[in-house]
Amino acid sequence: MRRISYIIRNFTVCTAAAFMLALTVPAWALQAWAASATIAFSDPDAQVGENVTVNVKVSSKDGQIGTTNLMLSYDPNVLEFVSGDSASGGAGSVRINGASAGTDTAAFKLTFRALSPGSTSITVGDYEVYDASSQPVDISKVGSSAVRVQGAAGQSSDTALKSLEVSPGVIIPEFSPDITSYTVNVALDVEKIAVSAQAADGGASVRVSGGDNLAEGENQVVCTVTAPDGVSTREYQITVNKTAVPEAAAPAPGADGVVLSTQLVNVDGTDYGIAQSFNTRLIPDGFREQATDYNGSGVMAAVSDSGMQLLYLVKADGTGQFFVLEDDGTFSPFITIQVAQKSIVVLTPDSSVEIPEHFNETIIQLNGSYRVTGWVPSGDPDQKYCLVYGMNSSGVRDFYCYDLAEKTIQRYFPAPPSKYDDAQVDAIIDSYNALQDAYNQRFLYIAGLAVLSAILLIILLNVLLRKLFGGGKQRDRDDYYDSEPRERNVRKQADAPVRRQTESPVRRQTETGGRRMTESPDIPVRQTPAERAARRKQREDDLDIIDL
After folding, report:
1. Do residues 159 and 165 lie in contact, with contact meaning Cβ atoms separated by under 8 Å?
2. For residues 10 and 14, what is the distance between their CA atoms, to the nearest angstrom?
3. Which among 172, 311, 319, 352 is least buried, having the fewest CB atoms inside 10 angstroms?
């Protein structure tokens, strides 16, 4: 019986826990599926001096296009941006920011002017596309536009190169304009190779493909020369062999006037020899020749006015380059970024020009004594840069960022607009908080119902157990209540004849409830059903208290 009770108690607890867990788990889940789209371009041809139209199309098969924000890049030496649908830009970049009427396609037309012959591409740098419900759209494919510009009639068809160099390594055989196939050998740690090519005709264009992410073995680099007529082309093939031991010799000792010292250094896992001297024509702009001491030995260095020191390091394959000598004696590659020279004519914007948000108007002093109107970021006490309104050499009018410290300038592109304003954000936050409070109250209600259900279940099981296993106990109680009076009556009846012989019993008959009873002063009176029931009830109450 105890084992059965133990099993039932465990089953009750497990059932109650499962019931509570089931009430707290959501009965459904919501899924949102994002639409997908593709970005495609047309590939037009044009002649120098003509306008060329490029079509841009954003298409979706499973949704509607709402707003489109694209940042495009192009070669400003070949093309000049003129105008476009919901587009603005110039100097090599165009931004498209437009909205469609809830259709599955958003189309834009861009107009460029062809400046010089050659082939160029218009590519997508960054994009944000939303559907009609302002939900982000997944872009499954991003295309580009291939534009070919032909020269005017009578233009030269010369496609020869005047020079061809690579770094690291040396081309084999020696360069000749009539030789179009070359080989260069590099070590296994070389990841990319730089190609410098100059066309014989100044009006021709040169394009280099390949040279990055070199794999072990053979790699192909192609240098394509397009003549001024825009039609004639020639390709120079360079086979780059990336092997552990180069098959061809590197530059002969003493090339470029390099004389190695006996010192070796390891930079990023590659061993280099330190050049004791080198040809001064290798010194970068802004640096001068100067002798310096490295580990107790005098070597030639290139030093800038700011005190930066460059040492010339040479790898085992003979290729060399400058490295920056840090104060702690370590080396880092000397890498520079070339910025094209350009000038901006500062203008005063008219009333139709919208001033960018969060900028305050001020007076800026440029070129010594010139004072112009500019705008600085609000809340910026340092004023590291400002905005000026001007026009570039292509005639594009726009705002430009002017670095007050370095005196450099670049196009200003405002941050993409947010999908929601402040009021909408506050409303979303309030809605979320209200939903969270509702879920918290729901959890409390469910927890309370679960506890109440568990209590009721325990009470029900207790009643069932008493019904199933309490019958024998009741019979034992009845026998206990009736045993003593019956035994006394049996003993008294056995002694009755003896007492009748010696005594004169007084008998009295009474009628109670239709039953006949005989009372005698010597024989105890038998309990009536009502009395026995009252006594049994009292006894059960006492036993229940003991059980509890």
Report:
1. no
2. 6
3. 352
Asked if residue 217 lies in contact with residue 230, where contact means CB atoms within 8 angstroms, the answer is: no
Between CA 109 and CA 98 the distance in angstroms is: 12
DSSP string, 411-432: E--PPPPPSS-HHHHHHHHHHH
Q: Residue 79: exposed, middle, or buried by beta-carbon count in 10 A (0-12, 13-18, 19+)?
A: buried
* Cβ atoms within 10 Å of 263's Cβ, excluding its own: 16
| DSSP line for 305-371 | TT--EEEEEE-TTS-EEEEEE-TTS-EEE-----------EE----TTSPPPTTEEEEEEEETTTEE
Asked if the structure places residue 349 within a domain, the reply is yes
Residues in Cβ contact with 119 at an 8 Å cutoff, skipping those fewer than 6 apart: 146, 147, 148, 149, 205, 207, 226
Cβ neighbors of 223 (< 8 A, separation 6 or more) are 161, 164, 195, 197, 206, 207, 208, 235, 236, 238
Give the pLDDT band of residue 495 (cuts 50, 70, 90): low
Q: Is 455 left (phi over 0), alpha (psi -120 to 50) or beta?
A: alpha
Return the axis-axis angle of helices 471-502 and 529-547, rounded to nearest 10°: 140
Residue-wise DSSP of 369-410: TEEEEEEEETT-SS--EEEEEEE-TT--EEEEEEETTT--EE
What pLDDT, on the 0 to 100 scale, is given for residue 122?
92
* CA-only gyration radius of the chain, Å: 50
Q: Which of 121, 337, 115, 117 is nearest to 206 (CA)?
A: 117
Residue-wise pLDDT for 24-77, tens only, equals 444 433 344 567 889 999 989 888 888 999 999 988 888 788 888 899 999 888
Query: Residue type for 363, please?
Result: I
Give the domain extent around 168: 161-242
CATH code where residue 66 lies: 2.60.40.680
pLDDT in tens, 365-390: 777 677 888 898 887 777 788 889 98
Lowest mean pLDDT among 67-76, 150-159, 417-426: 417-426
Nearest CA to 70 out of 37, 39, 36, 42 is that of 39
Q: Write the CB contacts of 452 (distance below 8 Å, at least 6 apart in sequence).
A: none
Taking the C-alpha atoms of residue 78 and residue 149, their distance in angstroms, rounded to an integer, is 8
* N-to-C CA span, the chain: 18
The total of structural domains in the chain comes to 5
Q: How many CB atoms lie within 10 A of CB 462?
A: 11
Structural contact between residues 61 and 51, judged by C-beta atoms closer than 8 angstroms: no
Please check whether residue 291 lies inside any domain of the structure. yes
Compute φ and ψ for 143, nearest 5 degrees.
-95, -170
Beta bridge partners of 234: 225
Residues 146 and 165 in one domain: no
pLDDT of 214-247, one tens digit each?
988 889 999 999 888 777 889 999 988 887 533 3
Residues, the chain, total? 548
Q: Which residues pair with 240 in a beta bridge?
A: 184, 219
392 with 90: CB under 8 angstroms?
Answer: yes
